[in-house]
Target: SWI5-dependent HO expression protein 3
Amino acid sequence: MHSTSLSLSIPRIPFRPSSAASHRSAPSIRARSPSLLPDDPVLYCRLVSIRHHMSTLKHSIRHQQAQLQNLENLLQLAPRMPMSLNNTSPPPSPLPDPSDIATTATATTPTPNGKIRRRSSFDILHSLAGPDSNLPLPRREPGSLSQDGIREGVPMDFGAGAPSQSYKRQSSPTRTLSRIPVSSVGNARALADDGIHTTPPRYSQGLAVPGATETSHSNMLQPPSPSVEGSRRLSLTPGGTTKVLADLQTGVINARNALENTKAQLRLSQRSVAQLTRQTEDLKEVRERLRLENEGLNNVVSRKERLLQEVLERARKAEAEAVALKAQLKAETTSSKKSLREMEAALAESTALSSKSEREYITLRDSLKGMKSAWRADVDNLREDMRKREERWRDEVEMTGKKYAKLVEESKARKAGVQSVGQLREEDVRIRREVEDEFREEIRALKERVQSSSAASEKAEKTAEHLAGELARLRRLMRSADQQPAPESSPT
Model:
């Protein structure tokens, strides 16, 4: 009974993290991974919270496992009661009584030979009734027993004759005082005396009855006085018969009181058995609930461990990426410095080249100016030559015309001479051909000179355009080279 009350009075531990739980369960957590970066405070705080949560979960699991083991031990130490009794009993008390705990501890203490001592009926009834109960409980007192004591569960012979061993009725081990079979009454053998030769117990307490009958019932339950013991002797007189009848009535009243006490104790034991049955079922439910909670907490712990492994894996990946990024940054810094030095060298070269190109440009510009003036003078000379030649050709044409007119006049004058005219005609044709050939040769030579001069001028113009483009490109390069060193001087 005390074990079940203890199990019902155990409070449930709420699931919340505590500093003590985290300190006690700190050794069970895996050590801090050196791969975590100190530059990531969010990940570090998350890992710390996950570790505290896991430590709290493990502490709660261990505490509940200890509670479950304690409940199982209490169930094993609890007395075995029959389950077929009535289920009418008052609700169990939330806290155990100290006397019950002491009684149960005394009853369940193993003897030196290794066997558990059997509990007496007084211990069982006292643990069921409690220290505050006023029920009379039978107590075995071997030193103070007398022959007039009423033996528990054994019928007495109140005959007028002298009691003899041959006429004494033997007690039935399967029947009690009320002639009810033992098989139909639970715990009857534990409440009754098992043997004939055992010493009968004496009732040490009186029945607590409220009202005016309390004194009379307590007087009836007290042991008989020595005067009553003397009245049980054999007597053939009418007075002896009256004493025997009074003794019989007193014995019947005592038997009835004992029967009522036994029935009350039986009802109390039935209530206690029902209470223990309910408490056992409650303990089974509590054990099942704790087992389910333990499984849930184990699942939570495994899930948290998986999450922690994933977080650690991500942290390791982040660390590897950070190392790779650092190496890449170092390589890029080295390459940028190298490229910066190369660019500075190229800038110096380009500066020297630009100064050289400026000098060349000045030289080319001066030479181009000289070439332009020379080309202009050549063109002027060519134009003057062309004008002169045209004038000459015009003079020749005029001369030819004059000659033709003269020939016409001569032809008109010499109509009679066909041969002279044919000759003149042939001469004219020849002269024409010669003049045309001469004109053609001169024109071809002039054309070739003009074409060569035009090609040279075109080539000079192309060269000038190319030089102007190169000069513009050099100026752009110089301008960009002058602008680049100013922002690039800060990282170096």
User: Anything to note?
Assistant: The CA atoms of residues 231 and 242 lie 9 Å apart. The longest strand covers residues 138-139. DSSP finds eleven helices and two strands in the chain. The mean pLDDT is 69.
